[in-house]
Amino acid sequence: MEKIKDLILRTVPEAVFEEKKQLTVSVEPNKLHLLAETLYGNAELPFDYLVMMVGMDWGDTLGVIYLLSSSKDVSKEVVLKTATADRVNPLLYSVTDIWETAHLNEREVYGLLGIRFINNPDMRRFFLNSDWKGFPLRKDYDPDSALNPVSVESKEIVDVAPRIMETPQGLKEEKVNIFEEDDYIINIGPQHPSMHGVMHFRTALDGEIVKKIDIHSGYIHRGIEKLSESLAYPQILHFTDRLDYLSANINRHALCMCVEKAAEIEISERAQYIRVITDELNRIQSHLLAWAAMCNDLGSTTAFIYGFREREMILDIFEKTSGGRLIINYNVVGGVMFDIYDNFQKDVKAFIPVMREALKEYHRLFSGNVIALGRMRKIGMMSKEDAITYGVSGASGRASGWSCDIRKHVPYSIYDKVDFKEIIRDECDSYARYMVRLDEIEESLKIIEQLIDNIPAGEHLVKTKPIIKLPEGSYFQRVETGRGDFGVFIESRGDKTPYRIKFRSPSMVLVSAMPLICKGEKLADLIGIGGSMDYVIPDIDR
Amino acid sequence: MLLEISHPAELYHLTNWLDTILQENLPEWGALLVKFVLIGVALLSAYAVIALLLIYGERKITAFFQCRYGPNRVGKWGIIQSVADMIKILIKEIIYIDNVDKFLFYAAPFFVIVASMLTFGAIPFGRGLQAVDFDNGIFYVLAVSSISIIGVLLAGWASNNKYSMIGAMRSGAQFVSYELSAALALMTVVVLSGTMNLSTIVAQQEYVYNWNIVRGHIPAIIAFVLYLISGHAETNRGPFDLPEAESELTAGYHTEYSGLQFGFFYLAEYLNMFIIASIATTVFLGGWQPIQIGVEGFDQIMNYIPSFVWFFGKAFFLVFLSLWVRWTFPRLRIDQLLNLEWKYMLPINMVNLVVMVIVVVYGFYIK
Amino acid sequence: MTVSQYFSGLFKGIASLIKGLTVTWKELWTPKITQQYPENRATLVISDRFRAELVMPHDENNEHACTACGICQMNCPNGTIKVISKTVETEDGKKKKILDEYHYDQGMCTFCNLCVITCPSDAIKFENTFENAVFTRGKLDLRLNREGSKMREKKKPEPKPAPTAATAEAPKAETPAPKPAAAEVKPVAEAPEVKTAPAVEEPKAPEVKNDTETKE
What we know:
The structure holds three protein chains of three kinds. By secondary structure, chain A is α+β, with helices and mostly antiparallel strands.
């Protein structure tokens, strides 16, 4: 990383480094784009993967934290920081031209913190209405409901995007139309049977062919990041289950690890084992549901029910272990909430052969089906480059040939002790995404098999202080959920509540790639591709 | 005919008796009028009852395929579930929608249901149970059943809903394509049997070795399979349910319909499934003829089972096949659907027709 | 597309379809998985850990273990619990804070278990009685301490949860009905509805927090 430091200093000599584990650099807003470009173009270790963009209100300044990583080695991380003191009309430079994923993230930052990005082609607020008053994540936000009353009137959707472009004559504010004059626009969502939640795609069609998709989100935005700023860490935990509810336990694991890392809490080996086993069970049920839902999207209702049938076994195990089925509420800071129940090992071991048998049945029923293959092969092509620039990690990224499994590359908990294969396929299509999930179920079963008989004795929960305060600083933790690279960022000022908490949503990048990979496909395939990407909406609408 | 076989439990005893009574007590035009009314009422009620049975059957069978129980709360095993649903649909509010072409919008369901009823009338349900018997019966069936597509297109167009519109357009393309295959498959049998009259076709198939599917062996079997596929596609049922693809278009062309109007579409869909199965039964599987193998005792026993029971048994078996297919496969995409028709089914059908002609001309069929 | 590809594609396709049909045919005869609720109520096993409803166990003397310390209220992330205490004078003239009303708004609860974990006197616990559907939202606002109940005096440190758990479960075993205590709970639960349930200004969580922090 010294080399990277040198490179940064050569590019921007006045860059300020912070004494941290991660390489953290602060630069002036006008130098950020240059630095980003340099890091992106670094031949040896290109920082071509923008993991997370965190909009920050530091009190006197507003700014953004960029967490960069490399597609060649996702364990390498660089943190860029930039800030502007202008709180009335804060402007920063966009990095959308470098990383596509920055596009939606910048729109989110604009909606929640009011920072506008120069050169972003579409500077509408994400999550919020264009007439929302105030910027919720700012510290001086006025939450008075009289300011933003709940409207009962139907609001017209305006397909006009404001933007600020840099021209030789200076900055120019302009408005562009999203769609062409005579586009046949169909609203897929917010209430649509195949949107897997309240997501809204405004889709321009040319006959059956998708011409353009405009994403609208925020219908179930709950402001979890804002709420968390007034809650203690153990209290925040219950929100993580409600982000990507299919990876509830894994999300929670991430936040627990982040807090444990920051507070230097050592958790017991037993708890680690239990966490990983439940994580993998969670992953299996998530992939099962993804499989079932995708089959349903493609019109095979029967397969849907079969997927749910096997998933039920895992949910029963969860219910007995933690008292929850979907929102399993199991990990806590310091370990897990309850010790495993007596027959846990027996139940899990009974489940493994059933699942293997079921996988065979799934392949017979659906994977080889000529209609299904026609609906998946060469459909929704996402090249490796696209996957990286959109930050599409997880099963969908691996289906594009990108080795991005956090469990493998940045092993957390006890993932370095277990033996499993990272499933990578290079077809880049819906079929690859579909197969990666089914194959990962098998890998997860292998991980569980390795651990289930070796759960060490000991405490399942170490005693923590009643009030957990994190030392001042910022903390990152990334995990591999069912959808991909989930990250938690905490900035603490030494209180029992975080100053800023941000969750990196793996579903948001999946959705942001949809307009690209659906373009030119049929309407029916839009739904199928959506199923193969497997996004969960509450994860986006945090 | 080997011998005069008695048919004790046949419905034609009843109809003949009624006919005699009417002829004796009324002038000819009066008898005719009463008969018309009776037949109409009988057909309509049969239509409704069969629809209820089919809906119940489909829900149960689907559930069993999916490891569920299906309806089991209303009545024992849920048998009056579909009656309850029917009552619900009858008393549901019909929602009047703004900004639609009102006349076309309300007319559309009638086209669909009338088309399916007209076809329904021409089916020979049993010995002497056929309301409409034309010499060109097959032609008639094909012709009137295609009226329904007008209703579907009108519904999609008049709803002022983009989902409906896409659904209707898909349906149009699909129906026109598969109608060809269906017709050609039936023509193959017409070549074999030499008549388009449905009752004659049934009469020809007295013994199992006379059934068209056996008599015409390979080309007939191919035609049978092709007819089932294209018929299945015509009824807009999975894997050909693109016009109402639930996961894409919510409900396709009938998205905006409610209450009884939706009920019409719903009823017609189920009945069309049955009609396709009935025509396949009539044309390929000997219609209402019992399984007779030319052995006296056996045939006599088979004949104690009324012919309409045979007919419904065979038809419901074919309906079961269609359900099995529907609940196994994923949905085709519109281009795959058209590929299947134009690149596979139509060429195979044409070759098959030629093969059948050769078979008939050179007498290669089982005599 | 060559002719052989055309036909091999056709036959492979048909083979794959038949394969799929065999799977569903097999499933047609497998045992059904639907749970026949509510008919299976008697045999339905709900995990003991399943969190459906917060309860405050009372023993046979109508005594509970709540000291009205308010830690549960303070730990609740979304204001589900409201502990209303009152000060009384004991025989020896000391002022003592005791529990007046313990309100639990089930409609708000996210079942995160923090209240139970943090309770220093094990006065509350989650039950697996999951049939909590009611017709109005107000009925979800439950009062957990019974009418006339009082705090159990801690004379000797006897095992607390054992007797309470036994009493709480005793009537349950007799009747399969999920809410055996419904008759007694209901009138109590309705009381806050008539009173001022939402009008009470809720003390802000952080303030209470500091209060108890110093206590510890």
